[in-house]
Design brief:
This protein is of the alpha+beta class and 133 residues long. The chain is 29% helix and 31% strand. A four-stranded antiparallel sheet has the order 1-2-3-4, with helices on one face. The longest helix is centred in the C-terminal third of the chain and has 22 residues. The protein is elongated, with a radius of gyration of 16 Å.
Length: 133
Amino acid sequence: MYRLQVKTHFDAAHYIKDYQGKCSRMHGHRWEVEVVLEGGELDKMNILIDFGVVKGMLETLVGKLDHYVLNEVLQEHNVTAEFLAKWFYKEFYQLYQLLISDSAGWVEFRGVHLARVTVWESPDCCVKYFGEE
């Protein structure tokens, strides 16, 4: 089994409504997001899936959030690391399904699946979301 990981970051603000503490006020983070894809078979070039393809998909999603107030953009009162991990998982999965269905044959997928998404709110704190199994 191969496990491919791609990580990026973005800067955005958020707040947690009704939270008892300073996080109830708007504040910002340099969020880090990592997607993990797994599969057991390489293509004829010995590649599981092209890093560039995965990076492009992740950057598409990050572009929707970078330098915004997440509560406003995502229309959610409490955008937490947990909320973002699930959001990224679902959005990445949808993009991946579109890519598979629209593939012109230059990308072979051989059973590669999205294993998890990790979101870091700080260098020391992260949430891992594995999907709804």
